[in-house]
Write a structure and sequence with these properties.
alpha/beta; 6-stranded parallel sheet; 34% helix; Rossmann fold; single chain
Length: 265
């Protein structure tokens, strides 16, 4: 469990651990999992069942983010949703929507490969915004719009489309990192006001009591076979290959979903 809250500040006392005033984070603000040994607080050790493979355990954290996104959006079984972006988090959201029995799951992405994975993981309809008008296609499928829209692409166009495809008084959750120079047209604000939409941002994946039901829900979903982990993993490499792998990712030379690095020895 990477987040290390102080548990004493006002936000921690309210159970909003992601907003801790002085939090640390294993893997960014302090040494992480590529070290030979890592010292962590006892409460940051998530006990996983013996029958849970390490590869599956490695994907618990991104799944908790997806589960938290749906909490923030107030999603309930039987509702409809659009997921913008079929990267790792977006695909996890698609899986949780399937598990929680969404009535309609739409996923958008500019990669046909990613859209094929989304369909395999539970999306009822996939849309490529470089080929079709997403707003018009959603209107055909969901009339006034979906109940919940999730932005997980980190793309300005997707951010604006979330507002366009959500029904009046629906919910929108922003989970993708947007460009720093992103700006929004006044029509964005006007649509939010006229449709009386609920907007939420998602930063991490925690709730009270720490670390939250997102973590226990994920472990149970994996053990029950409801969360498809194998499809989420696109590559396996030895840990010694990490510098080369990261270089390829940075140069956009390695299309991927989740990559597992295996320690040798």
């Amino acid at each position: 469990i990477p987040l290390v809250p102080c548990f004493h500040c006002e936000e921690c006392q309210r159970g909003y651990y992601s907003a801790c005033h002085t939090y640390s984070f294993i893997g960014s603000r302090q040494a992480g999992g590529f070290a030979d040994y890592v010292e962590i607080p006892e409460r940051n050790a998530l006990i996983v069942p013996d029958d849970l493979p390490f590869e599956a355990a490695a994907l618990i954290e991104p799944s908790t983010v997806a589960r938290h996104i749906l909490d923030l959006g107030g999603f309930q079984g039987g509702q409809s949703a659009v997921v913008f972006g079929a990267g790792s988090i977006g695909l996890m959201v698609v899986q949780w929507l399937r598990i929680l029995k969404a009535s309609l799951i739409i996923c958008t992405d500019i990669s046909e490969t990613n859209l094929a994975i989304a369909r395999k993981l539970g999306a009822h309809v996939t849309l490529n915004p470089s080929v079709v008008d997403v707003k018009e296609e959603v209107k055909k499928l969901a009339g006034d719009g979906v109940d919940v829209a999730i932005e997980a692409a980190g793309a300005p166009q997707a951010l604006q489309q979330t507002i366009q495809v959500t029904r009046p008084r629906g919910s929108v959750v922003f989970g993708g990192n947007q460009p720093l120079d992103q700006s929004l047209p006044m029509t964005f604000i006007e649509d939010v006001m006229r449709k009386e939409l609920r907007l939420n941002g998602c930063f991490m994946s925690y709730s009270a009591p720490f670390p939250g039901h997102e973590w226990t829900d994920t472990v149970q979903a994996i053990r029950d076979g409801e969360m498809d982990i194998d499809t989420m993993i696109s590559h396996h490499f030895p840990l010694s290959a990490a510098p080369e792998v990261f270089g390829q990712i940075a140069a956009h030379q390695l299309p991927h979903q989740k990559i597992i690095l295996h320690p040798e020895g």
